[in-house]
Every structure is written in C-alpha cells, then in structure tokens.
Amino acid sequence: MNRIRNALTIDVEDYFQVAALAEAVRRDDWDSMEYRVEANTDRLLGLLDQFNTRATFFTLGWVAERSPELIRRIQKAGHEVASHGYSHQLIYNQTPDVFREETRRSKAILEDILGEPVTGYRAASYSITARSRWALDILAEEGFTWDSSIFPVHHDRYGMPDAPRWPYRLITDNGYELAEFPLSTLKLPGYTLPIAGGGYFRLFPYWFSQWGLGSINRQGRPFVFYLHPWEVDPEQPRLEVKWLSRFRHYNNLDVCEARLNRLLQRFDFAPMGDVLQEAGLLDTHSLSPESPTYSDGQEQAISARKFVRTL
Known about the structure:
Elements: E1 5-12, H1 37-50, E2 56-59, H2 61-66, H3 68-76, E3 80-83, H4 96-114, E4 120-121, H5 134-141, E5 146-147, E6 168-171, E7 177-180, E8 185-188, E9 191-194, H6 198-203, H7 206-218, E10 224-227, H8 243-250, H9 253-266, E11 268-270, H10 272-278, E12 284-286, E13 305-307
Parallel strand pairs: 1-2, 1-10, 1-11, 2-3, 4-5, 5-7
Antiparallel strand pairs: 6-7, 8-9, 12-13
Pfam families: DUF3473, Polysacc_deac_1
GO molecular function, one term: hydrolase activity, acting on carbon-nitrogen (but not peptide) bonds
InterPro entries: DUF3473, Glyco_hydro/deAcase_b/a-brl, NODB_dom, PuuE_HpPgdA-like, XrtA_polysacc_deacetyl
C-alpha cells in the first residue's frame, strides 16, 4: 500500500509580523525591525532539499516586494508559491474593500516575480471565520481556485468549529466554489484538537504530534502541516509581550528544526496544490458571463474561476 502524500506548507512571514507580537510592534515599525525571514526561509529550503521534499510557500506580498530573489529561489527549487496576503492583518478587522485591494496587490506582486499564475491562498492567522466569510467570494473573484484558511476548531483568534475537517469543495455565499484544505485536527471525545503544526508542533511532545498526524493517515486522509521560517530561528530578537503571547511565540524554538527533520523522515509530503489535484478537487472552468469583471489594468489570466461540482 502506498503511503499517503500530505501537504507541507510554509507561511513566509517574519517574526515581527506575527499577530501574537502585534502588541509590541506597530505596522509602521516593520521597516525598522531586523529582517530575518530571508535567511530563515533559505534555511528551510536547504532542509527540504536534503529530503528531496517539495512544499507550498504561502508568501506575504510585503516580503516578496523586499526579497524577489528569494521567491525565485523557492520557485527554482521546485516548490509551489501561494499567497499569504499582503500585510498579515486579520481579515475580520479589515473592510471588504481593503481586503480586496491587499489581495489583488499581493497576487500581482507574486505573479510578476514568478511569471505564472498564483491560485492558492492562506489568510493571516487563519482569520477567515464566520465574521469574514465574505472574503471567500473576493478570493474567487480575484482568481484564486483553492484556499487553506479555515481551522475547524474553537480558538480566541480564529476558527470555524463546524467546518469540515477534510479537503472539500467549499461553496461561497455568492455561489462560487473553492477547493478548501482545512487545517488538520485530531478528534478526541468531546473536543477537536489542533494538530497541524506551528505552535502546536512546538507545544506538544514530538511523539504526540507524530501519533496524531499518523492517525489521520491511518484513516486514509492526507493532513496539512504548516510552519513559519521564524520557528527555526531561536536566535531571533525577544520582544516584550504578555505571557500568553510570549509562550505561544517563543516556546520550544530551539527544538523545532530537529523535530521537523524527524517529521520529514517519517511522512511523505508534497505541495498542497498537488495533494488537492490528486484528490480530484482542482478541475475548473471559467466563470459565467454574469460573473464580476475586472478593470482594464488587470491581466485576463487572473480571471476568477468556479469549480464544477462533481462530488
């Protein structure tokens, strides 16, 4: 029996852009902070190359503007590049117009660098929730065909606890369809536990993460694992924040890379787009003539798409 290929994802953002540290760093201060994301992303690229493993790099437009050669290195190494928005703001704190502008801007930046369409998206801090479902329609209208922003858990900052746990075709409020790869969870009696990576990967003992992710594969399902470049950087500057934010961000940074090394040996991984394609969730056709149109300055190749429902 062939082993299941899981989605390996990297959210390319710097340490000072994380929502947990927003109390210590204003958006206007970003340009003055020590810039470490490029070196840390290269560190992950080197590790993935050792294991001949390809991943999806959800990249901030803010980072891509400053490090276009990094984006080209990611592409040249055979990885998939997707959008992580522009400025890592929580979507439910934005207006639809601001979200659309940032989404369009970040997509154009990445596509100009790569010379190819960018069709995948992940929201900052998984902030597509019941309060911001409208963002899914905007993603479809701006040319995205798949998403990985929904975390089917209860959390103080994100979550759609009643959402499906496995990859599926999501119907937006306006009737578009997107392939959705929700963040992986472990079903316990009376509770749904996040197990997809990031801070949970650092918080839980490694054996528990391996067991939990393995249990998803034993059910015949692929899981999605995510990590940030700053999570393999224990030397990053320490910012003064409240204890919970400090715990979430700095806990076990010194062991994360070694744990990732073990995980890459244990499981098979591929870019998220490939995993969705294998699941038969990426067959698309152009939107109908009644669908929204674009301004004269936009590329026709970035037209929105709907999915044909076949499931």
